[in-house]
Amino acid sequence: MPTPMFLTALTRRARELPDAPALTWRGRTVSYRELAAAAAATRAELAALDLPTGVPLCVPARKSPETVALVIACLQAGRRVLLPSAGLGAAALDELCMQTGCSHVLTIPASGPTGGTGEARLVMAARPSGHAPGPALPPGPGLLLTTSGSTGTPKTVVLDTDGVDRFLAWAVDRFGIGSGARVLNYAPLNFDLCLLDVWSTLAAGGCADLVDPDIAMDGSRLVAVCAERKPHVIQAVPLFFRLVTDASDRPLHGVHHILLTGDTVPVPLLERIAETFPGARLWNVYGCTETNDSFLHEIDLAEARAAGAIPIGRPIGGVHARVVGPDGRTVTGSGAGELLVSTPFQMRGYLGRSTVGDAGHRHDGMFRTGDLVHRDEFGLMYLTGRSDRQVKVRGVRTNLEEVERVLLTHPRVREVAVIAEPDDTAGHRLHAVVRGTPEARLNGLGLRVHCAAGLPRTAIPGSFDITHDPLPRTSTGKVDRNALRRVGHPDITHPTEEYAR
């Protein structure tokens, strides 16, 4: 996330390394000189819009150098920038703007200033702005990141400026990102992974190789990008490495660091990663948007084979961690419970009506991750699950109850149960069992369209069972999802294809 310190560093890079590559995108290279010129042109156009002062601006995270330049321009103008998923439905986007007080949504076409035209073409759309409770926004520029986007109204995270600066410095030092270094960016621009992939890289004078979302599920084209760009650092979810290792018929040399994040990695996949990227150091990185990276573990293949799993490791320097059992007591030594962390990088708080402050997510001053872990006798942590009904779909944390809530807003839907099923590629795939009203003629396509207005693509069920019969229930009156799993279902539609954390 850019900060005043980041903007100063970027200005220095443009002065000292004007012709060095800053970004690559769809076969073209954007130098630091061009990126600075694009940001300046966009900032001038932004000033001419005479937008209200003191309110955040919303920039949907459509990956491109133009969007990066637009974000930089907004920050140079002293603005806070809300950077939501580009795939967020219109209704959910309006609600998010209401919650955070954003008055306008800004976009810029890919043929804008870094595309060779020399002219910015800023597009502005008004949105209903509200008054967001929770912590007041600190003065100065900065990004407002949203959590995974697994709900129609994702939580907005206000990051701490000093914490972001500490993270940028840590990432640059730990993974050797400096002038001339290349870092592959696979994640969408609104994901916290971009703090390392894009913003740390630009601060250090390196080059961020932006992967086009249009090829994100094409293993052969991802292999071609790796072979052509020869990145020094690759950070991505396991899905990326599964696609690349399946498609590659030769080793890909030159990668110094592989960062695995966002989900668990099966040992067989880990072995294929090591074969495909010989010489690369393999790291398992654990964190969340609210705290940023918290744990780091350098993977040893022999140890992973022996254990049959990969630990998240031990806390990064300055990070404090605690395991709390179901009784609320701290677990000392080996044992299991919910993971609590406190990091030098973590957020100031949440912003928005749906999450007033963040008191419910803290315990004795530490952030409750909601992740269940087991700590072994050597102090290594292993993830074992979630404390709520959240699962990872293609690396994105997805709230099953929110998916059900959106489906229940359909006027002809009476009951819903959303089930997460294990999937070798996606981690999980979602299946919805939907009971319609007697006169309803529901189908999977119509339900998917309904979901798209309020959910990101990863949260849209990939298949549907449609019935007029009541769903089975437990003795307490709740839908019996275990019974639905035992019954099984036809696969009506294919899983949604999406990527990232």
Automatic annotation (TrEMBL):
<dbReference type="GO" id="GO:0031177">
    <property type="term" value="F:phosphopantetheine binding"/>
</dbReference>
<feature type="domain" description="AMP-binding enzyme C-terminal">
    <location>
        <begin position="402"/>
        <end position="478"/>
    </location>
</feature>
<dbReference type="GO" id="GO:0044550">
    <property type="term" value="P:secondary metabolite biosynthetic process"/>
</dbReference>
<feature type="domain" description="AMP-dependent synthetase/ligase">
    <location>
        <begin position="11"/>
        <end position="351"/>
    </location>
</feature>
<dbReference type="InterPro" id="IPR016130">
    <property type="entry name" value="Tyr_Pase_AS"/>
</dbReference>
<dbReference type="InterPro" id="IPR042099">
    <property type="entry name" value="ANL_N_sf"/>
</dbReference>
<dbReference type="InterPro" id="IPR045851">
    <property type="entry name" value="AMP-bd_C_sf"/>
</dbReference>
<dbReference type="Pfam" id="PF13193">
    <property type="entry name" value="AMP-binding_C"/>
</dbReference>
<protein>
    <submittedName>
        <fullName>AMP-binding protein</fullName>
    </submittedName>
</protein>
<dbReference type="GO" id="GO:0043041">
    <property type="term" value="P:amino acid activation for nonribosomal peptide biosynthetic process"/>
</dbReference>
<dbReference type="GO" id="GO:0005737">
    <property type="term" value="C:cytoplasm"/>
</dbReference>
<dbReference type="InterPro" id="IPR000873">
    <property type="entry name" value="AMP-dep_synth/lig_dom"/>
</dbReference>
<dbReference type="InterPro" id="IPR020845">
    <property type="entry name" value="AMP-binding_CS"/>
</dbReference>
<dbReference type="Pfam" id="PF00501">
    <property type="entry name" value="AMP-binding"/>
</dbReference>
<dbReference type="InterPro" id="IPR025110">
    <property type="entry name" value="AMP-bd_C"/>
</dbReference>
